[in-house]
């Protein structure tokens, strides 16, 4: 009896490595601390009613962002561990197995559990405000999406201490990811973690497409919609088409592993290249899903801090849409070396290069917006300006990679690693940072300390170039990716040392941002006026910061592109608003219809977690328990008719008056 328990425990818990032990101890301590603090300050009830059960898009957005920042830390620690291992030849810091696990979790976490939730967080907080809407189209579904993301991310992350992490790369190519290549449970954690959070992502995509098409304030024609909302639309449509492919692909892989189907195993008549085709049909659009919103952010920030309308609005919209369209026709550039022949390779080379055109259009439009603008450079603008050269270099190395014959040389080398980090960090991460700094006062009613922000900015940028520029050279010198070790006589060490130093500079930059947030909270200067930068152009700046839970006391009427800015200009010139704007502004307040909070999303996602955990370990009772729980909570939701209420006029008046007072 004791023996079986011991045997089970040694399989169940990951043990032995001091790094992992350290993590286990710190996770345990952190959990105890959180429980203690919540109990001590009697905050459980507050946490449950104000946050965990909320359907308010702004609060959901904040929860997404908190998770994303924690995951940035986790993924960043992985990155630094790898960079330490690569700093010297034949180092025995991480063994091959551990290294494989780390680059896998790093990639998955950065893309799916850092970039995606950061993006969803910004969608959630900003898009309804930009549209002049009171909420997203489906608030309950929105909360469900968040909790599904959370359940999936947790399921993926527990593999670190329970059962063992996946180690077949962030896209899990077979045969490595088949039972024959990964007999342990790590791969199952991968499948179910991503599958569950993927359902949430798909629902979010649908939610925002409907929100944008259906919930715009009166007068806001599509062609008057702010650029960030446009980029959200482009990204959400891409999600709607791409994520079902991911779901099916992972399901097939699951059938291979679980039932011994042979979709992707050669010996049973399957074909691993089929998996590569499928996963990249999702994977390539996925990188555009995360970068398009960054383009939207840059457009907003450039216009605000140049005090000009965005240059070439229509061409910006057209560029967004054509990038998302073409993103579905480039996937095979990830395996030019597959041997599919010159014609196929040529097709995918050309479609890939085509994307450079709309992207170039956007870059020029940003530059033309700045040209002769009244420029100022607070932190959001600094990130935007730094992004442009970084992304241009990344884009150009991308075009080099898309030259099919040349790719036979670059394929799977550090040249590629440098390229994609340049677009992912220089484009996505810098972009979302710009957005976070820009909209932070809108979310919380105070600005982040600019001085510390500038330190973080410079450290990130310097660290970035120091880390990744040497990798282009290393790639050309023949260093391949996913190696944990190389020989002295390769001559790769000096550049690798430089690269590792750069990685740590970025780590330091992250610490500066944490300090910046802590400092800004401690020496909080409330600024609830609403138009916090004084240069807001779009509707989110027309209401107090942070926005009241119902967003707009009166739904605005939109007449112009950059409506809020034009309104301020009219007032500065002493002109009257157009009649319909006046009518909307002076209409009597009416009770506002709002959705009620609900505990069902978090409970239902909890059951999904249980079912996923059961699938991972193949514990039938647990699978059944989880799935039954899902169905029961679904029924509970279906028969709950008490899910909305009205905010009374008196209460709106009270809240609006208080907000006005705060503004003074
Ligand atoms: C913050 C600084 C970062 C550093 C120092 C860093 C470093 C690394 C390293 C050393 C590897 C493994 C290369 C190899 O041996 O194959 C890697 C892989 C990867 N990184 Fe990063 N990274 C960083 C940020 C990011 C970000 C922000 C993203 C995405 C948004 C990202 C996405 C990936 C992906 C997808 C892989 C491929 C994993 C695989 O091969 O399966 N990284 N990174
Ligand atoms: Cu691609």
Automatic annotation (TrEMBL):
UniProt domain Cytochrome oxidase subunit I profile: residue ranges: 42-559
Q: Provide the protein's localization.
A: Cell membrane
Instruction: Write out the pathway annotation from the protein's UniProt entry.
Output: Energy metabolism; oxidative phosphorylation
Q: How does it sit in the membrane?
A: Multi-pass membrane protein
- This protein's source sits in the domain of life called Bacteria
Question: What InterPro entries does the record tag this protein with?
Answer: Cyt_c_oxase-like_su1_dom, Cyt_c_oxase-like_su1_sf, Cyt_C_Oxase_1
Describe the family membership recorded for this protein in Swiss-Prot or TrEMBL.
Belongs to the heme-copper respiratory oxidase family.
The name of this protein is Cytochrome c oxidase subunit 1
Q: Which organism is it from?
A: Candidatus Pristimantibacillus lignocellulolyticus
**What's the source species' lineage?**
Bacteria, Bacillati, Bacillota, Bacilli, Bacillales
